[in-house]
Amino acid sequence: MLNTRNTLIKELPEDERPREKLLKYGVDSLSNSELLAILIRTGTKEVSALDLSHRLLALDHEGISFLAGSSLEDLRCIRGIGDAKACQIIAAIELGKRIATKPKSKKINIASPAEVAGLFLEEMRYYKKEFFKVLLLNTKNEIIVIEDVSVGNLNSAIVHPREVFSMAVRKSASSVILVHNHPSGNPEPSREDVALTKRLVSAGEIIGIEVLDHLIIGDGVFISFKEKSIL
């Protein structure tokens, strides 16, 4: 009779155990499922942590990308993933996002749209709603602060010049850069995006704060209004 019992991690050869592989060969040697298994730590009587990680990656055809935007409820649908394991995974994903997008303590000088996009591509590509952010810059084009202005539904974000420029005025910003995402993954600007940008440019001219650019973030790609000569 064929034995279909799941193999426990401790029964694997030492070089095949995720934690031992990391210690011996470094983190780059681990697959996505092995990294997840280290986070999960323990399995159940029926399945190992590695088996659970395989099941998590199989939740959706996007694999690891799906986990980046998953909720606690999504993870807990896997038998063997309870509150503790789900929280560990969600917390690790959130830490990764914050590390990838947090500016260093030294002020960042913005010289190109690609530099701006680099701050947000990994974070905003997974958003399920439209987020509108504003970068406040000083006279040297250094970032003073990044402000969240609004969160919209799947199709639009409600943005008013008052919300965009109030903090810029308080922080004595010389200029601003606008950034928002398209949950569809396609960064092509809509007519509403263009109209909003022109409205904000006009408002900025009145109060003496220049809108340098407007970036739309898609799924790993972006569009700069300045580069497209829309601005």
Structure at a glance:
With 231 residues, this protein is of the alpha+beta class.
What key attributes describe this structure?
alpha+beta; 2 domains; 15% strand; 231 residues; elongated; 41% helix; Cytidine Deaminase, domain 2
What does this structure look like?
This protein folds into 2 domains: 13-100; 103-224, 3-Layer(aba) Sandwich (Cytidine Deaminase, domain 2), CATH 3.40.140. It is built from 9 helices and 5 strands, in the order H-H-H-H-H-H-H-E-E-H-E-H-E-E. The protein has helices at residues 18-25, 32-40, 49-57, 64-68, 72-76, 83-101, 113-124, 161-170, 191-207, and strands at 131-137, 143-151, 175-181, 210-217, 222-224. It has a 5-stranded mixed beta sheet with strand order 2-1-3-4-5, sandwiched between helices. A hairpin with a 4-residue loop joins strand 4 and strand 5 (222-224). Helix 2 crosses helix 3 (49-57).
The secondary-structure class comes to: alpha+beta
Distance between the termini: 71 Å
Total strands: the figure is 5
Mean pLDDT: 86
The SSE order reads HHHHHHHEEHEHEE
Specify the helix fraction band: 40-55%
- Tally the structural domains: 2
Strand content: 5-15%
